[in-house]
Structures are given as structure tokens and as C-alpha cells.
Amino acid sequence: MRKRRVGNQVRAGQDRVALGDTVIEFAVRRSRRRKKTVQITVDGEGVRVAAPWATPDREIRAFVEKRADWIVRQLAEAERRPRPPLFVTGDTLPYLGRPTELTVEPGDVAHPQVSFDDGRLIIAAPRQTTGDGLSQLLRRAVVEWYGERAAELLPACVDEWLPRLADGERPRILIRDQRKRWGSCAADGTLRFNWRLVMLEPALIEYVVVHELAHLTVKNHSADFWKVVAGVLPDVKERRQRLREAEKTLPM
Prior knowledge:
Layout: E1 5-6, E2 10-19, E3 22-31, E4 39-43, E5 46-52, H1 57-66, H2 68-80, E6 92-95, E7 98-107, E8 113-117, E9 120-126, H3 131-165, E10 173-176, E11 183-185, E12 191-194, H4 202-214, H5 223-232, H6 236-247
């Protein structure tokens, strides 16, 4: 039932547990570098278990059984998430909270060129590149385009809200690819924002900007911090919940 590829540092295989009518199939990856903890990851690719090299099969299965309810919920949520874009004409990507149709036009260009026109994202794509290579090339170009828009829009949003939340000059702003964070405020005041923010509606962009600017005054998430945020955004709880829902719908 199990196939394994054995190497010097990693051993991988497949397994399953059955709980009533529910069968959970999972991939197991054992590593000599992992010393103690067993970790489960659930995403669009399925269930993966990372474990220390010598962890017995029965212990891994018991761990999966213990987390079965959580795994089933995560799998259901993963199925509801939008599929990753193929970067072909007809795909849609969100921009400022609105679905934006993608149009790919082969052309005599060395590198993809992305523009926004009449509510569409238009990509001039090099004719000589096809298949997966082209998809990866177009993805990088689209991410770069979003990053450029973020570099334009987020500093302007910071300038709008900064006087209401802190004194002094605008802090340093960096645009980053942060898979699990919308933004952060460093000890020196540097603000880091996820380029994906420009996929969201403006009200949610404002919430994230205000959240990080509030950290210039209160570094933690205490009651005092939320009081500062609510002082300028009375509907902070609603926006926070909408952000949690929105992040589940982003395709990339």
C-alpha cells in the first residue's frame, strides 16, 4: 500500500486512515532534520504530514486520527477556494475588490508587458514561449504589476491616515510577498505590506494600513491598540471579519 523513496535525509510515502465513512489519505515526509514535532498541512494539493525520521507509522496515523475533524474542515475549505489562475484569456483576477478579466495577446515582445485598460488586465506575451514556461512567465509579470500598483497606492493610503494616528514623517514602506501576513510594523517603524492588498476592496486596504499605523503608537494588540484603531475606524470589527473572508477567495 505504501511506496517510499529513500534518500540520505528524506523519506516520503503515502498512507490513509478510515474513520467510519470518512477516509483521509495523506502523504508522509520524514526528515532527519525534523527532531520532535509532527506537523500536518492541508491545502489544494491534499494532506501532508511532516515527521521526524524515526516516527512509527502507528504514531503518525494516531496523530492524523486525532486531528481528523480539523483536517476534514480544512479540506472542505480548500475545495471552496478558487483554482489558481492559468494565465490565459478569460481568467479573472481581483483588483481593488473587483473581478478583472485577463486578456493574453501574443506579440513580438521579449518579456511580458502588463497593462490595465477598460477594466481588463492585458498581457502582451512573447510568441516564442509556450506551455508551463509561459504560464510561469506571465505569473511573474502579473505579480510584478500588482507590486507596482501596491507601491503607488499604499504610500498614498499611509499619507492619508498617518496624521490621524501618529506624529512625524512617513515611515519607510516596503512591499513584500508575505504569504501569511497582510502587513507588519517593525520596531524601527518600517511598514511592510503584502502586494496582494491591491486585490482587495479599498475599505479593507484602509483597515490594514490603519492597523499597522496604529502599531507606531501601541506595539501590541492590547485593548489600547484596538481603541486607537476604532478611534478612526468605528467599524473595525466588521472590516476585520470581511478581511478574513476575503483572504479565502484570493486565487494567488
